[in-house]
């Protein structure tokens, strides 16, 4: 799809790679982030991933599928980092070192909506859709700053796992800090669902013909 952004030069078009993020991208970034927050996505764990010409393109000259997994994993890891206040530093460090209990990506499905080409920078954000004592589900979406739309949606299932025993873990049964994490995820779900519901009422989806 064609870019909605207009740049004065080739260098300006890739200025998202500069240390200051590029002044030309500032309004594009602001608009995409504001929309994501209004849709119920978590601002604290968002990431921005700049498209690189040499690494991210495939022979068809658009961003390859595998690159999206890399982008989404960056967002997922920031989400896992957000567990630290509830787990405490010791249990959080254990999680990073694959000890005790921690999250594991069980599966995901992806819906590619539009192709992305260099130059472009992507905002990646997640919102939770379901929470259970042993797992939670979410949607991680990828916004193109140049196109100002969501270009891919990932539906993801995260399972909590007892690394030492090699079995799934129930946060409520373990209790303590893990129960606190479960309650925090439930609260986040309620907040994000409320925001998302408001957005959906104000922006009803158009009916599209099925391929």
Task: Explain what you see.
With 211 residues, this protein is α+β, with helices and mostly antiparallel strands. It has a single domain, classed as Thiol Ester Dehydrase, Chain A (Roll). The chain has helices at residues 10-13, 26-38, 53-56, 65-81, 84-96, 171-174, 177-202, and strands spanning 47-50, 101-112, 121-132, 135-144, 149-162, 167-168. Strands 1, 2, 3, 4, 5 and 6 form a six-stranded antiparallel sheet that branches. Helix 5 (84-96) packs across helix 7 (177-202). The longest helix is centred in the last third of the chain and has 26 residues, at 177-202. The model has no long low-confidence stretch (mean pLDDT 93). Residues 11-20 have a biased composition (Polar residues). Residues 1-22 are annotated as: Disordered. It comes from Botryotinia convoluta.
Summed up, the helix count is 7
Helices and strands, in order, run as HHEHHHEEEEEHH
CATH fold call: Thiol Ester Dehydrase, Chain A
Structural class by sheet pairing and helices:
alpha+beta
Q: Give the overall shape.
A: globular
Largest sheet: 6 strands, antiparallel
Low-confidence stretches: none
Query: What is the name of the CATH class?
Result: Alpha Beta
Head-to-tail CA distance between termini: 18 Å
**Overall mean confidence score, pLDDT:** 93
- DSSP strand tally: 6
Can you say what the CATH homologous superfamily is? Hotdog Thioesterase
State the share of residues found in helices, binned by percent.
25-40%
Strand coverage percent: 25-35%
Q: What Rg do the Cα atoms give?
A: 19 Å
Total tally of structural domains: 1
Name of the CATH architecture:
Roll
Protein name: Thioesterase domain-containing protein
Biased composition (Polar residues): 11-20
Pfam families: 4HBT_2 (PF13279)
GO molecular function: fatty acyl-CoA hydrolase activity
């Amino acid at each position: 799809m064609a870019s909605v952004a207009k740049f004065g030069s080739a260098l300006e078009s890739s200025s998202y790679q500069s240390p200051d993020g590029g002044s030309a991208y500032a309004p594009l970034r602001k608009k995409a982030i504001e929309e994501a927050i209004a849709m119920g996505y978590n601002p604290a764990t968002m990431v921005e991933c700049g498209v690189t010409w040499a690494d991210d393109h495939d022979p068809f000259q658009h961003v390859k599928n595998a690159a999206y997994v890399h982008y989404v994993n960056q967002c997922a890891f920031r989400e896992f980092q957000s567990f630290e206040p509830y787990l405490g530093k010791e249990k959080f460090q254990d999680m990073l070192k694959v000890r005790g209990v921690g999250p594991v990506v069980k599966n995901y499905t992806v819906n590619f909506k539009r192709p992305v080409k260099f130059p472009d920078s992507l905002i990646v954000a997640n919102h939770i859709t379901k929470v259970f004592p042993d797992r939670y589900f979410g949607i991680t979406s990828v916004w193109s700053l140049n196109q100002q739309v969501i270009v891919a949606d990932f539906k993801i299932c995260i399972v909590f796992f007892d690394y030492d025993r090699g079995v799934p873990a129930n946060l409520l049964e373990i209790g303590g800090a893990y129960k606190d994490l479960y309650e925090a995820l439930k609260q986040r779900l309620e907040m994000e669902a409320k925001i998302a519901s408001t957005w959906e009422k104000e922006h009803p989806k158009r009916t599209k013909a099925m391929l």
